Amino acid sequence: MLNVPRGAGDLLVDLPSRVLIIQFGNEHESRLNELLRQCYGEAGEFIWFDAGDDAVIELAVGTYDLAIFLDTELGNQGLASIHQASTVNTKIPLILITHAASPAFEAEIMENGTAECIALENLSPNVLRRIFRYAGTRKLAERTLRDSNDELIRGILQQREAKEDAEAQSRANAKLAADLAEAKADLEIALLSAKDSEQRFRRLAEHSPIGIWLQGPDDRTIFLNPTAAEILEITEHDDQMAATLENLVLPSERAHLKAPRAAWHNGEARELECTIVGAVSGEEKHLFVSGAPLSRNGDQDGSVLLSLMDISERKKSDAIIEHLAHHDSLTGLPNRTLFQDRLKQALALGQRTGKQIALLFLDLDHFKDINDTMGHPAGDQLLRTASERLLKCTRLTDTVARLGGDEFAIICTDLDDGGMVLTLAQRINEAIAEPFLIEGERIHISASIGISLYPNDADQAERLIKFADMALYHAKAEGRNCYHFFDIGMDEEVRRRKALEEDLRQAIRDEDFTLLYQPQLRLGDGHVYGAEALVRWIHPSRGMVPPNDFIPLAENTGLIHDIGHMVLRMACRQAREWMDAGHPPIRMAVNLSAVEFMANDLLPRVKGVLDETGLPARQLELEITESAVMADMDKAIAAMHDLRNIGVSLAIDDFGTGFSSLAYLKKFPVQALKIDRSFVQEILDNPEDAAIASAIISLGHSLDLDVIAEGVEDAEQAEHLRLAGCGNAQGYHFGRPAPAAEFFAKQAAE
Ligand code: C2E
Ligand code: CA
Ligand code: CA
């Protein structure tokens, strides 16, 4: 039984796996077979041929990693075959194994220049393995390169996964480099022991996977192995002799050669990377060159041994990794990191040229809704198309970056005046307003743009970014689909917002809030069955602050949780007090922000307040807006069921303004829809609004939901709604939001 060493698998990696053996006699067949088995174990594929035309054809057309000529005798037939073999297949190494190689025969073979010649007597598994290794290393190198190429292409195609691919690739390249370094070390050992026979070195060099280039003191070529000739793309003998590194590298890199060259001639080893242009392919190649002085018999005569490696593939994968680190994988645009770099560069340039720079921040309006309703692949496609449009609007010298989500930034350098930016912003607004064709649907979307200018607004990157962001915020606040230049007033406003936030925190500590209650009644008989609690902030200097002035800020800062909790407790306590005072039971409607609705502790919070105040759950109704529900449908539905299970009612507020579809609505365990005030306002004059209102009413009927119209201001509106089938209403016509003490007093008076 063959004793395969541990780790033999690794060893085999180095060996040529398909070997053609051409034999001129069968005297040593079994001996070679035995040796091969000792080297390979069960692995390897050996195809035997008797010398002749068939063998030559096989060599020409078959795919082999190595060919062995066994038992050739010194004589014309053997030599001719080898010569023929070396011309029909130049790719694979040829090895001659002879019974007794005479020096004369060896000399002839070496003259021929293509084969390694070994005497069978000297052959042991180790020697064989070592000889094969050169061939094997070369094969491995080629295979790794081929794999690398495949991975590169795949990497480019699948940008998302490319980063990992490219990293794996770089590891593969590192392995390749290690293999090559090993092969090179072997060659150097061979070179040292080649004092006696330079031809032996030549033979090793022939099959080396690295380029070997021997240069004399005058830089002239003494020897160039086939790999080096292939890398440098010079095949003519005379051209090879005349070639120097200086002549081959890009002119721009010529100066870099000086120092290493001087070092080599000074007896020092030195490495460098350079770029040459292939004479045949015309392509730029990156080479890794390791140079070392050559000593003959201990003396240095100024000759240099250069080892060459074509590292273009590695450079490419390095470039891909570099690209991925600085670009957004979805759109290929520069990412935030690169954007910041570019901005700093632009500012440095601006300082020198004195030209203006504009920074545009851009955000797609309501992009989230598209993502939510059409799915992420559609959203991705929209972002890609949008980024293409942005690139079309800008100049090549501008930077268009994706900062994340639907946020983009554009850096425009070299501006003569701000007017150019204005035109650009308009162009962008128009380009984005063009319908997008996504999954066969025409999608309309718009963009909001904020702009800051260097040096007018600021001369530092951080401030320019902050100002462009503020300007964007204003563009959004002003109804979107527009652009806004930064102005100092905005800075002022941010300061105001900060002060307001501070005041709001204080108000929460002091509980400076009160609730007003607006009656909700049945249109049929005017029976008041509920009240909506509406919060007011009692500000020490500004008086009663309406919710629209502070709820958005509270939502943005997270203060809404404290405020909401306080409101819920006050409203429930009030409803309980009315009950205890003997009033007819009133269902208390409390508004919930999207942020509150999505909070994980919503259920325990509501339960806690009901327990604490003693209000029966059925007497509490929570109003949530469509948009709160649409943000995360699954979570919203789960939260609604939780609330339903403890007996709390749910109403969808501002219905008609969001994106709910009937399909979704059916899944919501809600009890009521509130027709948004905006449809009620012009219900008499605007047929469209009237149509929407009646559609909501019939939708409510078909789903067995209560419908309540809000913002009813006069009797005509109320009558119209009643006739249209709307069951309930709320509005100034029936009662303004009022303090608790007035709620029943007013109704008693009426
Ligand atoms: P909403 O939930 O749509 O509340 C109805 C708003 O319409 C209230 O404004 C109310 O005063 C007003 N209103 C009622 N009847 C009429 C009418 O006939 N005509 C007109 N023009 N308006 C009418 P308010 O109190 O200023 O509240 C504004 C918004 O602030 C509310 O809109 C609600 O979204 C929010 N809000 C109010 N209180 C709270 C609260 O405690 N928590 C949360 N998260 N939001 C609240
Ligand atoms: Ca409401
Ligand atoms: Ca409403």
Key features?
Alpha-Beta Plaits, Beta-Lactamase, binds calcium ion, 51% helix, binds ligand C2E, alpha/beta, disordered N terminus, 750 residues, Rossmann fold, 4 domains
Secondary-structure blueprint:
Layout: H1 8-13, E1 18-23, H2 29-40, E2 45-50, H3 53-61, E3 66-70, H4 76-88, E4 94-98, H5 103-112, E5 115-119, H6 125-157, H7 159-192, H8 198-206, E6 211-215, E7 221-224, H9 226-232, H10 237-242, H11 245-248, H12 254-265, E8 270-277, E9 284-296, E10 299-310, H13 312-326, H14 336-353, E11 356-364, H15 367-374, H16 376-393, E12 399-404, E13 407-415, H17 419-433, E14 436-438, E15 441-443, E16 447-454, H18 461-477, E17 483-485, H19 488-510, E18 513-522, E19 528-539, E20 543-545, H20 551-557, H21 560-580, E21 587-591, H22 594-598, H23 602-613, E22 620-625, H24 626-631, H25 633-645, E23 649-655, H26 662-667, E24 672-675, H27 677-681, H28 687-702, E25 706-709, H29 715-723, E26 728-729, H30 740-749
Parallel strand pairs: 1-2, 1-3, 3-4, 4-5, 16-17, 19-21, 21-22, 22-23, 23-24, 24-25, 25-26
Antiparallel strand pairs: 6-7, 6-10, 8-9, 9-10, 11-13, 11-16, 12-13, 14-15, 18-19, 18-26, 19-20
